[in-house]
Amino acid sequence: VNCLIQCGKLKNAYLVAIKAKLPEEVERIADAAARAGQTSVRDICEKWLRTRS
Q: Which GO terms describe its cellular component (predicted)?
């Protein structure tokens, strides 16, 4: 997941994180997506996190 975030492949990182059920990684991906302006990835991360709460 770290490598995918560093490479900017945030959607792929999200898919790996949800498959492994790692909410802390999904939070990191959402933050990285917000910084990168990838609102669609940020939105899907936040939606997944809300369903887990």
A: centrosome; lysosomal membrane; midbody
Residue 23 and residue 44: Cα distance in Å, rounded?
Answer: 13
36 neighbors 6 (Cβ within 8 angstroms)? no
Where do the domains of the chain lie? Answer: 2-52
Other beta carbons less than 10 A from residue 51's beta carbon: 7
DSSP 20: T
pTM of the model: 0.94
Long-range contacts: 31-39, Cβ < 8 Å, 24+? 32/5, 36/8, 36/10, 38/10, 38/11
- Span 7-35, pLDDT tens digits: 999 999 999 999 999 999 999 999 999 99
